[in-house]
Amino acid sequence: MTHKKLIVMDYGGHARSVADVAFSSGYDDFVFFDKNAKPGERFLNYPVIPSMEGFFELGCDAISAAGDNLRRAKQCQMILEAGLNLVNVISPHASIGLGASIGIGCFVGHHAHIGPMASIEDGVIVNTGAIVEHESSVGAYAHVSVNSSIAGRSSLGKYSLLGIGASVIDGISVTDYVSIGAGAVVHRSILESGIYVGIPAKRIKSLVEKRQSD
User: Fold this and answer.
1) Which CATH class is domain 5-87?
2) More confident residue, 38 or 143
3) Quick one: CATH architecture of 90-213?
4) How far apart, in whole angstroms, are the C-alpha atoms of residue 203 and residue 145?
5) Does residue 5 contact residue 30 with C-beta atoms inside 8 Å?
6) Residue 212: what pLDDT?
7) Terminus of the chain with fewer CB atoms < 10 Å: N or C?
8) Shortest CA distance to 195 belongs to which of 114, 101, 186, 14?
């Protein structure tokens, strides 16, 4: 029997979802990577290794499981530089519409929907039950969270986050580096980066302010 192995970079909470979807997609062997891993460490009963150097043959499948957008972007670049095959992990229970395009290093969770002619760029997470409707676009390394929705002909910029249960109505544009809080409703285009919450969504903090308060 031929085993289908996947290297998963990071092993936080999102890694559990990645491994679950990957298993349902035909992968049956996993190795998790974290540079701070201790000798003999395991995750979901699979090994966690601190270095990829010399461990795998070139072309082995790999994906980043980092929930943080910037971290995921860095890990995708590390995968490519290591000579590994950056792949998508897409649930067989997701629906992908006619003419939709999906980049590399993307995760599409169980019961997610990507509508016809939608565009998903590299490193995007379309999480469990999320919807990206017809002719909408999601920029590189953005995250469409669990049960959130992007209506038709709308866009979410690169490195942006659409929080759990949040929604973007039809024909709306959201710029890059925007974080939209859980349950928020975006009914006007967002042209300035920052954190937006509420119904309707309003800007409460810049990303610089957020970093200073963290």
Assistant:
1) alpha beta
2) 143
3) 3 Solenoid (2.160)
4) 19
5) yes
6) 47
7) N
8) 186
